[in-house]
Amino acid sequence: MPDKKKERWYLEQLKASWGDFPSGEVQETERPDFLIKNHLRTHGFEITEFVKSPSTGESHHQKSNALRQQIVERALLNHREQRGKRLLIDVEFDDDVRLRNADVKPLAIQLASAVAARDFPEKDLPGWSEIVDVSGLKGILAVCGDYWRGNEDWNVSGGGWVKECTISDLQDVITKKAIRYSAYRTKCETVALVIAFEVSNNPSIEFPKQALEHRYDSPFDQTLLLFANTPQTVVLRNDV
Q: What's the number of CA atoms in the CB half-sphere (13 Å) around residue 226?
């Protein structure tokens, strides 16, 4: 369950990516998490995080991917704090080196410093043509990147255990929240369920077309899948 600060961030990301976000005064509540009041009606928003449970044998790999993602995200924040260029960066980790929680902060600082030490001339086309010196960086095999038109994107390089979000995964989230739908409606005229997907909670997961286009059994007025990092909002269809 996200805390209120995280819920507010999800709501802002929803506002930035969903054209039908209502105008009005935002109130923080519980069940639903937010109310937005305007002269027409009161809209309720219940926010829940999507987290896909690991299957047998997957847990260690999932944790490793999450640590890698945290390292790259922290390195990017450090790079921004140092007012570095907006870069396209790709980081390849060594599968044979086991990283721990204690490695995240120091390795992120070292990665940001390594990138800062490399000159990135502006390119006509995007890519990862500049090689960064990663000697001494635990568990990192290679870092490459480019400076292209001010674009910024730091990624963990491919590979890894890729999971799929299934129709059942999303339906389970909806069904659990649907139990309280009647209680939500006592405070508002409409209720939207926001299923928030955030990369650090779900490394290496894909959403196939059939899961995004399926008609779900949902009592909510809108059932929204929020890709919070991008941000992007997909309106899931209700089977009504």
A: 28
CA distance 223 to 216: 9
- Rounded Cα distance between 223 and 171, Å, is 11
**CA 14/CA 196 separation, integer angstroms:** 9
Distance CA 23, CA 113 (A): 43
> For the segment 7-25, what is each residue's pLDDT rounded down to a tens digit?
999 999 999 999 999 999 9
Can you give the pTM of this predicted structure?
A: 0.61
- Tens digits of residue pLDDT in 135-144: 999 999 999 9
Q: How far is CA 21 from CA 13, 45, 69, 74, 154, in A?
A: 11, 10, 30, 31, 29
Cβ–Cβ under 8 Å, residues 188 and 41: yes
Do β-strands 25-28 and 34-37 pair in parallel, antiparallel, or remain unpaired?
antiparallel
Here the tokens at position 65 are 């991917």
Type of residue at 17:
S
Distant-in-sequence, close-in-space partners of 21: CB < 8 Å, separation ≥ 6:
14, 15
Instruction: Give the integer Cα–Cα distance in Å for 32 and 39.
Output: 20
H or E stretch including 223?
strand 222-227
Question: How far apart, in Å, are the Cα atoms of 157 and each of 128, 141, 143?
Answer: 11, 10, 9
Please give the Cα distance from 143 to 196 (Å, whole number): 30
The angle that helices 104-116 and 59-81 make with each other, rounded to 10 degrees, is 50
Q: DSSP class of residue 138? A: T
Query: Two tokens at 99?
Result: 């990283």
